[in-house]
Amino acid sequence: MSHPHAARPDALPARPRGARRRVWVLPLLAAVLSGAFALALSLGSVPVSARELWTLATGGDAGLAGQVVLSLRLPRALAAASCGGLLAVAGALMQVLLRNPLADPYVLGISGGAAVGALLAMLAGVTSALLELSAFAGALAAMALVFGLAHGEGSRTPTRLLLTGVIVSAGCGAAVSFILAVASEQSLRGMLFWLMGDASTASRPAVAVGALVAGMVACAPLARDLNLLTRGDVTAQTLGVSVARLRLTVYVLASALTAIAVTTVGSVGFVGLVVPHLVRLALGNDQRLLLPASALAGAALLLLADTAARTVIAPAQLPVGVLTALLGVPVFLFLLQRNGR
């Protein structure tokens, strides 16, 4: 007779004690994100005091400062924060599924497809709304191409998806180079800023914010299966996980989150690569904690980087992707050295 307290083979593994103790990190990251929002809304050519911010938060009239915050800084801050969260979550998902610490949200050619669509729209001189639509269409086209080519005669294995994504990215890179070569000098600066990441034109952040919320809701029921997947495909299948379906679901989810982020702020590097690493070092690999923590940390990082990009050499602005790369390169080299030891 079996022991009454014996664990069932398909039972959900208990959350480790360390993970329970580290849950307090989520409120800490939320507080950091709130502070980053306060800085983003107050810093700029028109300084906004904490008192004026409180007036706005309580529904009062803050005059010129209120107009600057509501019409310019708040939409940009929401776009930067939500896209940082999207990239960090997508990076965490890709690293788990590909079992590759170098995997990032752009590994499947999504960024390249969005870049081709956006640059073609700039070359045609379309409006900003059509520019975002064109970038999103390019990202979806690249995603469909990768998934279609990677299927082959069998299933979409991680290696086949990765190699197909690399080839599609190379093709998109060639197309981007061609577009830059034939573009006029007037449109070349805007193209380069978009390619390096630029949140200054993100005037409609509602789509990115909604995508981040929807993405986190979609990730919640997948976290348990992802935890099992980290133990290996055989173990996950033994415990009742449909590995093929899980991989396809999460690949599509990560690709969609990346497409929306790239459409909103352009190609911003290193956020989806470095943030999941840092969070994993601090909190472990429990996806129930790693994914929301990555979203908060990525949002805070990109928001702080965008604030610095528009204030460091004001009135001129830097592409936010330049600052994330300057921060991400030494951090990632440190992580490599630490892991090597």
Keywords:
341 residues; mainly alpha; ABC transporter involved in vitamin B12 uptake, BtuC; 15 helices; globular; disordered N terminus
Architecture overview:
It is a single chain. The chain has 15 helices and no strands. The protein has a single domain (34-52, 74-340), classed as ABC transporter involved in vitamin B12 uptake, BtuC (Orthogonal Bundle), CATH 1.10.3470.10. The radius of gyration is 21 Å and the shape is globular. It is mostly helical and 341 residues long. 74% of the residues lie in helices and 0% in strands.
CATH architecture: Orthogonal Bundle
Q: Count the strands? A: 0
Would you list the SSEs in sequence order as H and E? HHHHHHHHHHHHHHH
Number of individual domains: 1
Low-confidence stretches: 1-17
CATH superfamily membership: ABC transporter involved in vitamin B12 uptake, BtuC
Average pLDDT, rounded to a whole number, is 83
Protein structure class: mainly alpha
State the helix count. Answer: 15
What portion of residues belong to β-strands?
under 5%
Quick overview of this protein structure:
The protein has 341 residues and is mainly alpha-helical.
Topology:
Layout: H1 17-21, H2 25-42, H3 50-57, H4 63-98, H5 110-124, H6 128-151, H7 158-182, H8 185-196, H9 206-219, H10 223-229, H11 233-238, H12 243-265, H13 271-283, H14 287-311, H15 320-340
